[in-house]
Specification:
The structure is a homodimer. With about 100 residues, chain A is α+β, with helices and mostly antiparallel strands. Chain A has five helices and three strands. Chain A has a three-stranded antiparallel beta sheet with strand order 1-3-2. The longest helix of chain A has 30 residues. The N and C termini of chain A lie far apart (about 40 Å). Chains A and B meet through helix 1, helix 2 and helix 5 of A and helix 1, helix 2 and helix 5 of B. The structure holds a DNA duplex (30 and 30 nucleotides).
DNA sequence: GCAACGCGCAACTTTTTAGTTGCGTTTTCG
DNA sequence: CGAAAACGCAACTAAAAAGTTGCGCGTTGC
């Protein structure tokens, strides 16, 4: 993740998170296909996909007149690892605090 | 996570993510302490902490005249697990696709 | 007791975001 | 060729988010 906050921000919209979930189940989808499954316009879907792509959560490729999108697994795993590091750091802080209290 | 998108949304702001990182290093902090480390007002910090608390990423407790905050590790781990599930699902979809292409 | 500290509430401004509609371009296909 | 499909660009609206300032209230401590 270049910018962890940007990744979480992209995942922080209910519609975009649903899009990610949708893409996790099917191989790859066009903008039109996706917007058919959501109660928003094609342009709104296009904007969401652009946000996800800019956050590297998704990749796109043009095939004739349509643009197909698929998940970029690596970015999900990077975000996962980031949360793991924060949790571990916090766990370490708790541990050091306990030791400090012991030595009092 | 009651609402995964809400958790990611809370983590999706650069300032809030920095607050989380800050809280991961120290045991627990008051609003005043935290706002001293950030270029925003105490009220802005208070709002951010409220957002993090509503997303269950953080817990607060009152001690005299100050309110102290600490990380809620469980929520970080839930978010982490969520990303893991999505990634696994996507991995599975890729596998099924590969098998389908083989059987053609 | 009273001054200073830490905080919450309310009102406000500014920027961002999610969504829309309309129009033009490229590609497909009968 | 010509209609329809899939998309991008631009302008716009409405709502939410990030931030500020001002004021009041409980707590601390000299």
């Amino acid at each position: 993740m270049a910018d962890p906050a940007a990744t979480f921000s992209a995942l922080g919209d209910p519609t975009r998170l649903a899009i990610v979930d949708r893409l996790a189940h099917s191989a790859d989808c066009s903008i039109h296909e996706l917007s058919a499954d959501f109660p928003i316009s094609r342009q709104a879907m296009s904007k969401h996909l652009r946000v996800l792509e800019q956050a590297r959560i998704v990749r796109s490729g043009r095939f004739g007149r349509e643009v197909r999108f698929r998940l970029e697994q690596a970015e999900l795993e990077r975000a996962q690892a980031f949360l793991g590091r924060v949790a571990a750091q916090w766990q370490g802080a708790l541990h050091r605090l306990a030791k400090h209290l012991d030595s009092d």
